[in-house]
Write a structure and sequence with these properties.
The complex is a heterodimer. By secondary structure, chain A is α+β, with helices and mostly antiparallel strands. Chain A is built from four helices and 18 strands. Helices cover about 10% and strands about 30% of the residues of chain A. Chain A has a four-stranded mixed β-sheet with strand order 10-7-12-11, with no helix packed on it. Chain B contains five helices and five strands. Chain B is globular, with a radius of gyration of 20 Å. Classes of the chains: A alpha+beta, B alpha+beta. At the A-B interface, β3 and β4 of A face β4 and α5 of B.
Chain lengths: ~240, ~140
């Protein structure tokens, strides 16, 4: 129900506004204004509205938390895997701390890198969120995870992350392990997660969360109770065109 | 008759000496609504110089704006106003009038010290905001 409501909001996204709407940072331009990306990094105004899934309020201005590459952004970018916090104040240079969460599943881009520290681990040129998520992450996830319904059908050059996910990555943490885009394959394992346990009868794979279990015929990968998959090691991040 | 011809020739030569009516306008005849020519303070000059240094084509030609001490003109094809206030706080408070000046179009208004700078893309010449971004980033802090 919430998702339907949010999608309804999303469908109204970018409708013409009768009054100025404040933005801060780069963001997609409304189709009514030609589409593409607005590259204004500082505070500015447009005459169209922001949707509730791809934007967060930052001191009264709309801050874009989606993947700008999906809209044609051609500036500097950083690859991320799965959900993670965004320190908005560091991105836009405002004084008050404001941590918002990105709920994009799987590999995606942002125009900014995370702050240095223990929160993120850089593996294969991609950032993985490895800290303990605060309660707000789970509290607000239902309201914002619908962003993936916007991005899943989009065709654009996404980061292709083929790397061993660091220990502690949110994509495999107990209670948080959705949205990681975990691809478990036989010989060609895309993202191999050390200690990731796939349990036969308890596996829950829901559409839209980018969990792909691909088992080629021979050699077979046995997905049984308690199978830990920890093969791999090739660190490679490249851009690939196409759907996730 | 000779005198009359000489007078005509002298008058004609006087007009051809390089001066134009634009360069030296006939005295006053100024309309009340016509904005005064921009008089740039040192602070405003520094901003304009920084924009020019960044490769932007800046022309401030009038004193119209949303404050008392303003300079208005264009940056490339964007409308721009720089207004100067007595303090940084006053300038900060003038951001809102600046946004009102922007009106129903893409734009920005921000305080930079005692100055408030407002830019509006009324001609839709900067659809991706790259010029506005360059302008904002090249403004001296």
């Amino acid at each position: 129900m919430i998702l339907v409501a949010m999608l309804g909001t999303s469908a109204r996204a970018f409708a013409d506004a009768k009054q100025q709407v404040s933005y801060i940072g780069i963001h997609p331009v409304a189709k009514s204004d030609g589409g593409g990306i607005c590259y204004i990094e500082g505070p500015h105004v447009h005459m169209y509205e922001a949707d509730k899934l791809q934007y967060r309020d930052h001191r009264g201005a709309q801050f874009f938390v989606g993947d700008p590459v999906a809209y044609g952004y051609d500036g500097p970018k950083k690859a991320y895997k799965g959900h993670h916090p965004i320190h908005v104040e560091l991105v836009v240079g405002t004084p008050e701390p404001d941590v918002e969460f990105c709920y994009l599943d799987g590999a995606h881009f942002h125009s900014f890198a995370p702050p240095p520290g223990a929160e993120f681990e850089l593996a294969g040129d991609a950032y993985f969120y490895v800290a303990e998520p605060p309660p707000i992450y789970l509290d607000t996830r239902p309201a914002f995870v619908g962003i993936n319904a916007i991005y899943t059908p989009l065709v654009y050059p996404r980061p292709s992350i083929t790397v061993v996910a660091p220990i502690g990555w949110i994509g495999v943490r107990a209670g948080f392990g959705v949205g990681g885009g975990v691809a478990v394959r036989g010989p060609a394992i895309g993202v191999v997660v050390p200690g990731f346990v796939v349990r036969g009868p308890k596996v829950k794979i829901r559409a839209g969360i980018d969990v792909r279990v691909i088992v080629p015929p021979p050699p077979s990968v046995r997905i049984n109770v308690g199978v830990g998959i920890g093969i791999g090691g090739g660190v490679k991040v490249k851009s690939k065109r196409g759907r996730r | 008759m000779k005198t009359a011809i000489i007078c005509l020739v002298v008058a004609a030569c006087g007009k051809d000496d390089g001066s134009t009516s634009e360069a030296k306008p006939a005295e006053p005849a100024t309309k009340q609504d016509e904005p005064k020519k921009a008089e740039l303070s040192a602070a405003r000059t520094a901003v304009v110089d920084a924009w020019k240094k960044a490769g932007l084509s800046a022309t401030l030609t009038s004193s119209a704006g949303f404050g008392k001490a303003c300079s208005a003109g264009t940056i490339d094809k964007l409308d721009v106003v720089i207004c100067e206030y007595g303090s940084a706080d006053e300038a900060k408070q003038a951001e809102q009038p600046g946004l009102a000046w922007v009106g129903s179009t893409t734009g920005a208004a921000w305080a930079e010290g005692k100055l408030v700078i407002a830019v509006a893309d009324r001609k839709k010449s900067d659809p991706h905001g790259k010029t506005i971004n360059q302008l904002m980033k090249s403004t001296p802090k």
